[in-house]
């Protein structure tokens, strides 16, 4: 039996050998390949891979596959957490420059996984940041590790990464997202945080390709609104109209919603509530997106129109949104009842989505 398991482990090693060898010659671990291999993993394959790594520990690709597999599997089976943590600590110690280390699968959560193990990883990352003080990738990877437990340290690392690699859009996006978090679900975004986020978002926007611009445009619109920067909103609305004219594959639904939302926000800034309400209704003409269809539409413009006295347009907007946000019908019915009763609906996280 032991011999059979050993043979199986060796066969598994052979399956992955080429990709593993590529990493050892300096070719980065490809995250898409890692995700694909991790999805094909199961507990039996993971055990075989652990056996292989016990004899061939220096294989970052296989360890990356394990890390991504354990990221989800350990939530269901707590007995896997010691293996998960042991593997992550090895990766932090030996592979701080691999860009995949910025993936959440390589973080240790102090609450779920234990403070002691989190601190072990934190100590390793702090040491790497000191010894690789000119390396933007190490600083950015460290920031990803610290992001949830210690946002101050994450910010410090991301600022360092931006300083070392000012032309890399991804670091600007990451820093912007760190700043652009609600103080609480009901409280929205603090203006100071929105202004800091907007600066980084705009840096990333200038540096990014068209695909990533489209991806982050909704966040930039929200940051501009919370910052009260109508000049940026005007530029974004114009850019989105131009991009829509070029028929951007995969982003039409998002751009239709957010270009009209931005134009409605501009109308609010001018005091033109009628034009803002018209833009609100046009935003609901979107065919939808995976995010709009699941999380639902952002309600910043709807709230502004409502606050300026036009409840009927907001109620009509809810009805139009049912076409793509079917799962939100009950929620919008509750908001509608609140409005008709003369109250103020609690949009909660929909002021942030």
Give the gist of this structure:
This protein has 353 residues and is mainly alpha-helical.
Structure write-up:
- By secondary structure, this protein is mainly α.
- 70% of the residues lie in helices and 0% in strands.
- It contains 18 helices and no strands.
- It is elongated.
- The protein has helices at 2-24, 31-39, 43-55, 60-76, 81-94, 115-131, 136-146, 151-164, 169-179, 191-207, 210-227, 230-245, 252-270, 273-283, 290-294, 300-307, 311-321, 329-340.
How are the SSEs placed, and which strands pair?
Elements: H1 2-24, H2 31-39, H3 43-55, H4 60-76, H5 81-94, H6 115-131, H7 136-146, H8 151-164, H9 169-179, H10 191-207, H11 210-227, H12 230-245, H13 252-270, H14 273-283, H15 290-294, H16 300-307, H17 311-321, H18 329-340
Helix pairs in contact: 1-3, 2-4, 3-4, 4-5, 5-6, 6-7, 7-8, 8-9, 9-10, 10-11, 11-12, 11-13, 12-13, 13-14, 14-17, 16-17, 17-18
List keywords for this structure.
single chain; 353 residues; mainly alpha; 0% strand; elongated; disordered N terminus
Q: Classify the secondary structure makeup into a structural class.
A: mainly alpha
The general outline is elongated
Major sheet: none
Helix content: 55-70%
